[in-house]
Structures are given as structure tokens and as C-alpha cells.
Design goal:
This protein has 16 helices and no strands. With about 400 residues, the protein is mostly helical. The N and C termini lie far apart (about 50 Å).
Length: about 400
């Protein structure tokens, strides 16, 4: 059917999942509002989703530490997400029902991101693919998802939103059931026990990594949760909102495409500082501009605020022992992208209801501490971790 090389298999799976994610992230708040959920409850539901991802990535994902188990686990979690999306469609607008299915959906979506990243990282270490060029297919799918759902919702109404998400999850499930031509096997980890998650987290460099990622990625909370509602309020229609989200991810794609050359001589520290500068500029402009055409260059900064920060984190993880890869991916997705995002998304619901666009100034201020935190060199990290085990 489709080529099953590691690059093709990974790209095709990422396409399906991130197509759905391109519907979920920008438009789920609009769908919630369409079915009668108020702003503060929307914030709570979205925050609940991030909290569940945090728990799933602390409790479930780290148990899958052998690369041989990554693909079977990915298949199971994708099927769970597909079932949850179907329940979303049929459960109606009851807040408790929506909370229950939000828990179910994010129990699957939470582990999918670190597990798919761990698979791509494994193949990248073996020289079978380039991480940036593979990951960009997920970003392209995000563009496609947000664009398609924006156009369809503009013509057919917000009821179409979960159906578009369902189509992407169905595609990713079909792609996942096939075996890639080279199955992930790592002789190095065959005899190793699962690394202690909390032991890794006690490492000072890992703590710094979590703090930096939490500040940079957490600064997107108001954007993910309420930018679409804010843009609707100031007169942007659904198709324009879809184009804005797509344009931001197009910038992300371009950074992923040239990341190997672009950041070849950059340290992890400098990549994080670049992202921090972008955060301050982007959210400051978001808080002040209301012209839809001026919003496009603001959205282009997503290639700095998200992509540069994400690539810096992935570079750090790639420099660590293979047996720590899934654990570090789990912590990254559990703490900065899970717990912190849950708290900030819930808080953003209250702040947006009270302050409107000024919530983005709070997000901009989150970047300031990053300029004063310095990551430890990789060699020192390894030595410190081994010492902590003794």
C-alpha cells in the first residue's frame, strides 16, 4: 500500500495523528463553545486534558522503556484515541460526560507524542532518517488539519469539527497496524531494567531542562486554549483562524526542514534563549495587534517559540543513553507539556475571562527567567546521574 521504510512508516503515522491534533488544538475550544460550554468550563476541560496527559506520561509511558515495545504500545493508544473521538461525537454537551471522554482521549494522546518521538529518535540514531525532516510531516499534517477543518466549519458549522479529527485518527490507526521494514530493536537495552523515573528527574540538568521547557512551552497555553476564541471575538471567521494556525505551523515546518543546518553550530542553551526572545516578541504583539493580516508575521514566530525550543529539548534527549530516551520523553511530555500546561490553560480561562487579550502579556513574561538558566554540559550530566545511582 505505502512504503514501509522507517522514514515512510514514521512520516505516515505522524501525518494521521497530527492531522487530528491540528483539529483538536485550535478548534476543540470552538466546538465546546458551540455545544454550550462557557469560557471558564472550556479552560477547565482543556486543562483537565493536559493534566491527564501529565499523569499518563508519568505513570504509563515510562513503563515502555524497550524500543521493541514502542510500536505495539503506539497501536493500542491510537485505538483508544479513535474510540474516545467517537464517544465525543455521541456524548452531547453534558459537562460531566465531556470531562469523562476528555480523560479517555488524553490518556491516549498523552503517550502517543513521546512514544512516536522515541521511535523517530531511535531510527535517527541508527541513521535511518533525519529527525527534523521526519517530524515536519506531522507539522504539515497539522497545517492540513487546521486548514481543512477551518474551511469546513465555515461552510457546514462547528458540528463538523470532531468528524474531521476522527478521520485523521482512523488514518493513523491504519498506518500503525503495519510493521515497518526495519522493526525497532536495540541490543543495548535488551538486558537493562527500566530506569527509575524519579532518579532521572533528580538530576540537576534534567530539572533545569524541565523548568526551561515549562516556561517556553507553557507560554503557549493561552494561545492553544483561547486564541481561536479571541480571534473570533475580534471578527476573524473560522477559515481565517484555520489559515492563521496553518501559517504558524508552516513556519514550524520550515525550521524543522532546515534544522540540521540551521542549528548545526548552536548550543542547547543558545537555542533556548532564541526561543525565549521569540516568546517575548510574539505574545507581546499578540496582545496588541488586531489586524488579521498583521497576525500572519506574528504567527511565523511559532518557528522560534515552539520549534526551536522543541528541537533544543530533543537534541538534549538524543545526547543521553538510549535506555533513558523514553523516560526523558515522558518527563518532557508529562511536566512542561502536561502538568504545567494544564495549570496554565485552566488559569488562562480565568485570566482571559477577566483580562481578555492582556493574558498574552503574562505569557510573554514567562520567557524572562530562561535567559538566566544555563544547561549543564552533556558529559557532566552523565557523570552526575551515575553518581546519584551509587
Amino acid at each position: 500500500m505505502f512504503n514501509r521504510s522507517p522514514y515512510s512508516w514514521s512520516s505516515q503515522y505522524l501525518w494521521g495523528f497530527f492531522f487530528s491534533y491540528g483539529v483538536y488544538l485550535p478548534f476543540w475550544a470552538i466546538w465546546f463553545k458551540h455545544i454550550g460550554v462557557n469560557d471558564s468550563d472550556i479552560g477547565l476541560l482543556l486543562g483537565l486534558g493536559f493534566a491527564v496527559r501529565c499523569i499518563a506520561n508519568l505513570v504509563l509511558t515510562p513503563r515502555i522503556h524497550k524500543v521493541e515495545h514502542l510500536i505495539p504500545a503506539l497501536r493500542g493508544f491510537t485505538l483508544l484515541g479513535l474510540v474516545a473521538c467517537i464517544i465525543y461525537i455521541v456524548c452531547g454537551g453534558n459537562l460531566w460526560a465531556l470531562a469523562a471522554v476528555t480523560i479517555l482521549f488524553n490518556l491516549s494522546a498523552g503517550p502517543i507524542v513521546p512514544l512516536s518521538d522515541a521511535i523517530v529518535n531511535h531510527y535517527a540514531k541508527g541513521g535511518h532518517l533525519d529527525y527534523g525532516r521526519t517530524r515536519l510531516w506531522g507539522s504539515l499534517a497539522f497545517i492540513a488539519g487546521s486548514t481543512v477543518v477551518g474551511v469546513l466549519a465555515n461552510h457546514y458549522g462547528a458540528d463538523i469539527i470532531p468528524w474531521v479529527a476522527l478521520s485523521g485518527l482512523a488514518f493513523s490507526q491504519i498506518m500503525a497496524v503495519r510493521n515497518p521494514a526495519i522493526m525497532p530493536v536495540d541490543e543495548e537495552t535488551q538486558a537493562q531494567v527500566r530506569p527509575a523515573l524519579w532518579g532521572i528527574l533528580r538530576n540537576s540538568a534534567v530539572i533545569k531542562l524541565m523548568v526551561i521547557a515549562a516556561l517556553l512551552q507553557g507560554s503557549h497555553a493561552a494561545y492553544y486554549g483561547f486564541s481561536s476564541i479571541y480571534w473570533q471575538k475580534i471578527g476573524f471567521d473560522e477559515s481565517m483562524i484555520g489559515y492563521l494556525w496553518s501559517f504558524s505551523v508552516a513556519a514550524e515546518v520550515m525550521v524543522f526542514l532546515v534544522s540540521k543546518r540551521l542549528f548545526a553550530g548552536w548550543s542547547v542553551n543558545n537555542m533556548f534563549r532564541l526561543a525565549a526572545f521569540g516568546v517575548m516578541v510574539r505574545w507581546g504583539l499578540m496582545a496588541t495587534l488586531t489586524d488579521q493580516w498583521l497576525m500572519f508575521p506574528v504567527q511565523a514566530l511559532h518557528g522560534v517559540t515552539f520549534a526551536a525550543a522543541h528541537l533544543a529539548t530533543i537534541r538534549y534527549i538524543q545526547q543521553q543513553p538510549n535506555s533513558h530516551s523514553v523516560a526523558l520523553q515522558s518527563l518532557y511530555n508529562a511536566i512542561p507539556l502536561g502538568a504545567v500546561m494544564a495549570i496554565l490553560t485552566s488559569a488562562s480561562g480565568w485570566m482571559y475571562g477577566s483580562w481578555g487579550a492582556n493574558v498574552f502579556w503574562v505569557m510573554a513574561a514567562m520567557a524572562l527567567p530562561v535567559f538566566f538558566i544555563r544547561m549543564t554540559p552533556t558529559q557532566q550530566v552523565a557523570t552526575e546521574y551515575q553518581a546519584s545511582k551509587a
